[in-house]
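REVIEWER CHECKLIST
Item 1: Sequence provided? yes
Item 2: Single chain? yes
Item 3: Sequence as submitted:
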Amino acid sequence: MKRGVIQTYDSQRGCGFIEPEGGGPRVFFSSRVVEGPPGLVRPGTQVQYEEAPGRNPGESQASRVILPSSAGHHPSAGPASASHRSLPPECIFTTLFS
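Item 4: Structure as written out by the authors:
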């Protein structure tokens, strides 16, 4: 299983991107594949994830995202979700037709 950090997340649209540990292209995820406390789905949260091919060639998406347990987790300061303006169009488009 790979590791990364949630880079962006829009709670209204239910999607975001993970920045892989060690670099590489970011990975799209939908809230439907997230396992763990919903309150921890926010930028800066470290996650484990399984990667699958995305809708377009060369893109990838998470088929499973595991959040840390709430025990011992200290959420970062800031809003729980990012504005949709900070998300790329593919996140917005993908969730409209899912």
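Item 5: Key structural point noted by reviewer: The helical segments are 89-96.
Item 6: Recommendation: ____
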